[in-house]
Amino acid sequence: MDILIIVVVLVVIVFTTFISLFRRYKRCPSDKILVVYGRTGVNKEGTNRSAKCIHGGAAFIWPVIQSYAYLDLTPISIEVNLTNALSRQNIRVDVPSRFTVGISTDPSIMNNAAERMLGLPLPAIQELAKDIIFGQLRLVVATMDIEEINTDRDKFLANVSQNVEAELQKIGLRLINVNVTDIRDESGYIEALGKEAAAKAINDAKKTVAEKNRDGAVGEANAMQDQRIRVASANATAVEGENTAKITIANSDSARREKMAEAERKAAAAEKVQAAKALQESYAAEQTAEMARSERERATRTADIVIPSQIQKQKIEIEAEALAEQTRRVAKGDADAILLKKQAEGQGIYEVLSKQAAGFDKLVEAANNNSRDAVLMLIADRLPEIVKTQVQAISNLKIDKITVWDNLSSGADGKTPATANFLAGMLKSIPPLDDIFKSAGIELPSYLKGEEKAAAKPPDGNKE
């Protein structure tokens, strides 16, 4: 139950997070400019941008570090009643006009609007634009004559638009329309110019009427004369015209047939040229297709032959490397085993020799530190085994039969039987113990050789 509650809480948190993120995605309407301010990156000069303006798109507004606002693109109508503006002739005039402005959608000008008018109410924007227009309108009036302002309205409006547009762009606005109504001056100069123009127009009209009446009477007489002349001339001209028309028709038919033939010739030639181009393009396309097909077949053969061979080669190389690595590892394992075995054997020999050396030290210590006596004690301890080995040297001799011819006088002294001499000689054939030890570089003590007993026995005939 607790796990279910935790899962539900996590789902609610995730859903709320997604909803919050979706709500931070703002779309810009077509009649507004979306201004994103806060941390908006850097511009080309490497400085932080004050705002990011978007028109006709959308943007994601990061929480905490960014916020947004809208600039309205609805046109703003501003009534500008300029009074007592001094013209180039030092005549003060009144120029009532109405300007229509709006926030520009040009990228560079939009940033100016965001920096200078974001958050301003409509009346404040109107007053700001009105002050700029007043100043530029006075400047334009001061550079023109009354006659230019009154008669050449196109030049006047062009100068106003140029000056006002440049200043409005500095705060992010653009000039949409300028409508100048009646221009007046305090001295009545423009009114006098109007009266002069009206009187001149009336007099010109009266003169024109009299001239037209005179011209009408003369014209009527001349008309009657011209009528008779023109009727006769018209008849002659009609006949001549009929003949000329017939000739013209014949020439026209000839020219028509000639042009039709030329057109047919050009059409046939064009058809042949187009057919040749089509055939050429067809051949070129077939050539390209054949080249592509050959490339495809070559790639297929390469994939069928070369790539399997390369794969087999790589497989063999990998198997050889694996076998070599296995052999190296087996050899290394055998070497390690032999090394460990030899180390163990050496350790065992070392232990045996160490124990023997310790035993020899004890033996020498027991013999009063006399190494020679210690060796003799060791030999005496091993003497039964030495004698046993000496006896075993002849124990395996097989004597099937011994025939002895013996008599009482066969001995060397004439007294000893020959059989006894034979056994004594046989025993003499066994190497004496003294000779055995001498061959090993060891000298037996005198008491083992019986020399002390022989020295103790007095010689024959010298009894004391």
Flag low-confidence runs.
none
Question: Tally the helices: what do you get?
Answer: 11
**SSE order, as H and E?**
HEEEEEEEHHHHEEHHHHHH
The residue fraction in helices comes out at: 55-70%
Kindly report how far apart the N and C termini lie. Answer: 129 Å
Amount of beta strand: 5-15%
Largest sheet, in brief, is: 4 strands, antiparallel
Structural class: alpha+beta
Average residue pLDDT: 77
Rg, alpha carbons: 71 Å
What best-fitting shape do the alpha-carbon axes yield? elongated
Would you count the extended β strands for me?
A: 9
Features:
464 residues, elongated, 9 strands, 12% strand, three-stranded antiparallel sheet, four-stranded antiparallel sheet, alpha+beta
Concise structural overview:
Strands 6, 7, 8 and 9 form a four-stranded antiparallel β-sheet that branches. Strands 3-2-5 form a three-stranded antiparallel β-sheet, with helices on one face. The chain has a two-stranded antiparallel sheet with strand order 1-4. Among the domains are: 1-72, no CATH class; 371-395 and 403-456, no CATH class. It has helices at residues 2-23, 107-117, 122-142, 146-151, 153-168, 189-366, 371-395, 418-428, 433-439, 446-449, 451-456; strands at residues 25-27, 32-38, 51-54, 58-60, 66-72, 76-86, 92-103, 173-180, 184-185.
